[in-house]
Design brief:
globular; 5-stranded antiparallel beta sheet; 30% helix; Arylsulfatase, C-terminal domain; 16 strands; Alkaline Phosphatase, subunit A
Length: 478
């Protein structure tokens, strides 16, 4: 009898030890997501004026990704893709989500729908606590029971705005905390949301691992920055508006540094941290409020809203605090679509039932290398450039226009039952091919120089686009 009791006691302690080891092996995860930060807006990617010492340090301790992509060249679809690991077209989020003003194309209905499975919900299933601070922009009706909000998708705590900080980054008045409006808050948005993140971590009672998503509003308009930082950049800027932009990016760096210091001081040794952007830089004066949009595409072609590289190739810095990993620059092709399957693998979670487009890139942590098994595809129907469908596979990128009979497809902001047939009948045409390894600026169409590769890429693009189109959500008012 004593032997049986002793065996049961040993089993109890063994199970407890295994459970404890599992908890320790599950890393905390922090995602920093900027808004409209361009590929060339950090000194790590070639900017000669802006200073970002905290991001520089993060990169020196981790992986600097040179070929890192967002899920879309504009805000809302990029965020939906990150959260779900799926092309935003599958979610029916084709462009940025406007306020709920009724329109013929049903854009007022657009939101992240109930059936979408997300990173925080997945991680909660294996014991994580979760928090979102900053910008949401995944629903047309914010903080309303008419559409699911951040908490529905797995965030235990959320402190967010629907879209931009208003009236600007300085003293914003449109934050909502867990369903309750907060009112005006003194300070600058990036610092305010890091304050909230730190406060949430301080109050977190359990020892469970956490997922923290920090969605900065910066450097999206309307831009406002601390005056001392603005004055610092005035000697290096063309004017005060450009100095405001430079200061805006450094203020983000300071906010990142504060949170990283907190994590180090509070012994969150096992924490995976990723810093990136939702899309490329805004074009100066594209609209009236973009007077301070001095973002840089660096060596890339295009800007935000383009399907050339600058639209969605963005900064990507990865650091696994407390764990030895590869350190240095990596040209592995990584996408924000890959976050969900990567986090699932390292946290021990099951993948969602919905088909996903991302892939786990855990091999990157070992040697800085990762080979995709399927290409990355973008179909952005409201692009500012003509070739609105783009696909990257290895070193190669192919792009195409869409044509319906004798006319090219016009700019489309949403697919609904009124234009579904029109969009689906359009054919890919006017293909161009680039070798991104040799030509990062997409300056030369090399289709004629590499006919075999061109035909292979063309065939693959048609197959991948047809598959995406078949799985794209179509909005209907009734």
């Amino acid at each position: 009898m004593k032997s049986l009791k002793f065996s049961i006691l040993i089993l109890f302690f063994a199970l407890g030890f295994i459970s404890c080891q599992k908890e320790k092996s599950q890393p905390n995860i922090v995602v920093f997501l900027c808004d409209d930060l361009g590929y060339g807006d950090l000194p790590l990617y070639g900017h000669t004026s802006i200073e970002t010492p905290n991001l520089d340090k993060m990169a020196s301790n981790g992986i600097l990704c040179t070929d890192f992509y967002s899920a879309a060249p504009v805000c809302s679809p990029a965020r939906a893709g990150l959260l779900t690991g799926r092309s935003p077209n599958r979610a029916g989020i084709y462009d940025f989500i406007p306020s709920p003003k009724k329109s013929e194309d049903c854009r007022d209905l657009v939101h992240l729908q109930e059936h979408e499975e997300t990173i925080p919900a997945m991680l909660k299933s294996v014991g994580y606590t979760t928090c979102l601070v900053g910008k949401w922009h995944c629903s047309s009706q914010f903080n309303s029971d008419k559409q699911p909000q951040a908490d529905y998708f797995g965030f235990d705590h959320w402190f967010a705005t629907r879209n931009n900080a208003a009236p600007s980054h300085e003293n914003p008045n449109n934050f909502v905390r867990n369903g309750k409006a907060v009112g005006e808050i003194e300070g600058f948005s990036c610092q305010i949301i890091v304050d909230e993140a730190i406060d949430w971590l301080d109050k977190k009672k359990s020892a469970d691992p956490f997922y923290l998503q920090v969605n900065f509003h910066e450097p999206h308009v309307p831009i406002a920055s601390p005056q001392p930082l603005v004055e610092k950049y005035l000697p290096f800027a063309k004017n005060e508006n450009e100095a405001q932009f430079f200061a805006n990016v450094e203020n983000v760096d300071k906010a990142v540094g504060r949170l990283l210091s907190y994590l180090e001081e509070n012994r969150h040794e096992n924490t995976l941290i990723i810093f990136t952007s939702d899309n490329g830089p805004e074009t100066l004066l594209r609209y009236k409020r973009a007077k301070r949009s001095y973002g840089s595409p660096g060596p890339l072609k295009g800007m935000k809203l383009w399907t050339h590289e600058a639209g969605f190739r963005v900064p990507g810095i990865i650091h696994w605090m407390g764990r030895p990993t590869f350190k240095g620059a990596s040209d592995a092709v990584i996408s924000s679509l890959d976050f969900l399957p990567t986090f699932a693998e390292i946290a021990g979670a099951d993948l969602p039932q919905n088909p996903i487009d991302g892939e786990s890139f855990t091999s990157l942590f070992t040697d800085g290398k990762y080979e995709r098994s399927k290409p990355l595809l973008w179909a952005f129907y409201n692009a500012l450039n003509e070739h609105i469908v783009a696909m990257r596979d290895g070193d190669w990128k192919i792009m195409a226009r869409l044509k319906n009979d004798s006319a090219y497809l016009p700019k489309i902001k949403n697919i609904y039952d009124g234009n579904e047939a029109f969009v689906k009948q359009a054919e890919l045409t006017d293909f161009v091919l680039y070798n991104l390894k040799k030509d990062i600026g997409e300056s030369e169409d090399v289709a004629n120089k590499h006919p075999d590769i061109f035909q292979k890429m063309k065939k693959l693009l048609i197959e991948e686009y047809d598959n995406l189109l078949a799985g794209s959500h179509i909005w209907m008012r009734n």
